[in-house]
Amino acid sequence: MDMLTDAARFIQLDPAGICFLFIVGFIGGLVSGFIGSGGAFVLTPGMMSLGVPGTVAVASNMCHKFPKALVGSIKRYKYGQVDIKLGLYLAAFAGIGVQIGIKIQNFVLNLWGPAGSDLYVSVSFVAVLVVVGGIVMRDALASAKSCGAEQTCSVALRLQKIELWPMLTFKKANLRISMWFLLPVGLATGLLAATIAVGGFVGVPGMIYILGASSLVASATELVIAFVMGLAGSVNWAMQGMVDIRLTLIILAGSLLGVQLGAIGTTFVKEHMIKIVMGTIMLIVALSRGFAMPKYLAKLGLMDVTPDTIALLDKVSFGFMVVSLVVGAVIILGSMFKAKRPAAVAATSEA
Amino acid sequence: MQAKAKKPVAKLMAYGIGSVALYAAVYQFQDILLTTSARGGVFTALPIATVFLFSWIHGTFAGTLWEVLGVNAVTKAPAQTATRAPARQDSRPRATVSV
């Protein structure tokens, strides 16, 4: 009986599928190493398109996420970018946020069924990514125009001045702030992680615009949060026997190469590049989820769409997700190449 | 002229062989790995320990590979530095007082 279940749960892998997972793992790792999160939103549907059942795809993806985050955070810690204390505090609050997120998901599922739940996830995806991605992109473009050093957000500076017990000091992030302002950032990160599986899309901007960390420290510290949350989630999934270790290790083969290249990249480029990559990816992913919404609206009887159109929109939606990751990777590699070239020219002329 | 740093080719080879050996072992014993992992419960330790082992061996190989390929981090000022007084503009010697 168990063997039958296992056979259905774990698919046969072909060379094309292995190459696909390795490449997406590499690109996802590159983006994660650079902006602190990303890749998961393409890997889960990508594995499902290979025939992997949804729960196994989520479990195997999560099981590759925490070692990737571990390797990335160690690398960025060596560059002096990680605030471990800030990461651990936020991870603890994010854990509570995940539990709240699961409760909300179950409430929506009981109220409107699976289609309503999917629509809730898509609406959350689009709303959060458009608002937060828009703010990040606007700030990134303003920083790029001014060409100056990164300025701490005025909201964060005001919050840091409020002496509300208990006050916490984070040396590496160079900030002192009340725990009560840390709590909503952590909760929102966990809530989003439980809803759309990419908590970093709110965690990193939260650290930058609410707590006042620099984008380098925020993106590096997000890797600590991803490690703690990923490890807890992976143990949970592994207890249920849902992890396909082969899929995890294939993705890990690419992502450990990518995450270290992304981490090296952060030392090459100007800080606003992290915001540009993050804003670009968030806005393209929002567009992608927008294309998926008619399917759920049709299931709820709120829209009349033919099955052919839904199939086409599904493909377009997945295509845009892949595009977002590829565009992010191209910007990272392009900016690294651009930053490296003057140094190489200078070295040649010296010789 | 600055001497070029020696590239860690031996380390790359050692961890590269280790990484290939681990992946070959997974390919060879994939059925037993999958069925044991699928049992859950106390066997949870198997997939978790496996990914930790891979992240050490393959992670070190990946990091060394970029180093050997010449893709190294640029050393620059730390992300957050303490506020320092601006550099002195005046090139004349400072006045001193002998007591």
TrEMBL record, chain A:
Q: What InterPro entries does UniProt report for this protein, alphabetically?
A: TM_pro_TauE-like, TSUP/Inactive_protease-like
Q: How does it sit in the membrane?
A: Multi-pass membrane protein
Under Pfam families, the record lists:
TauE
Q: Where in the cell is it found?
A: Cell membrane; Membrane
Which domain of life does the UniProt lineage start with? Bacteria
Show the GO cellular component annotation of the record: plasma membrane
Membrane-spanning segments: 20-43, 86-107, 119-137, 180-202, 208-235, 247-268, 274-292, 312-333
Keywords assigned by UniProt? Cell membrane, Membrane, Transmembrane, Transmembrane helix
Write out the similarity annotation.
Belongs to the 4-toluene sulfonate uptake permease (TSUP) (TC 2.A.102) family.
- Protein name as catalogued: Probable membrane transporter protein
Q: What is the organism of origin for this protein?
A: Solidesulfovibrio magneticus str. Maddingley MBC34
Its organism's taxonomic lineage begins at:
Bacteria, Pseudomonadati, Thermodesulfobacteriota, Desulfovibrionia, Desulfovibrionales
From TrEMBL, chain B:
Mind listing the UniProt keywords for this protein, alphabetically? Answer: Membrane, Transmembrane, Transmembrane helix
Q: Region Disordered: what ranges?
A: 78-99
In its UniProt entry, what is this protein called?
Uncharacterized protein
- TM annotation in the entry: 12-30, 42-66
Recorded superkingdom: Bacteria
